[in-house]
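Quick review question:
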């Protein structure tokens, strides 16, 4: 059974940095895409960044130049380095892995990020 566990969230002042981690356990078959999504109160969940298992990345316009996604394939871990944080980045951040071969997706439980002075 595939499980994802996020960590690294917390409270940070505007302009600060946080690094989120997501560890994946269980067997993942073949090509996969890992990503970070976020959901603010009263809003829909939105994509933040994705990375394929060959390192191709994609970012939401709102985080380009501030956030960096990376992954370690052997250890099935994905990170999200968040710099120059803004109050509008406040949300619950979720990790997801998508496996195209089986059209399966798995989500973590989420980690809260609060940007406030």
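Suggested answer, residue by residue:
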């Amino acid at each position: 059974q595939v499980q994802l566990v996020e960590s690294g969230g917390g409270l940070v002042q505007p302009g600060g940095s946080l690094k989120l981690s997501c560890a994946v356990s269980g067997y993942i078959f073949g090509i996969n895409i890992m990503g970070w999504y976020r959901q603010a109160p009263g809003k829909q969940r939105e994509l933040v960044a994705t990375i394929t298992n060959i390192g191709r990345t994609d970012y939401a316009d709102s985080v380009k130049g501030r956030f960096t996604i990376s992954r370690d394939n052997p250890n099935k871990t994905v990170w999200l380095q968040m710099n120059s944080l803004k109050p509008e980045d406040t949300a619950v951040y979720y990790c997801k892995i998508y496996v195209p071969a089986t059209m399966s997706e798995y989500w973590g439980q989420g980690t809260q990020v609060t940007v406030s002075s």
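Why it works: The mean pLDDT is 95. The chain is about 0% helix and 55% strand.
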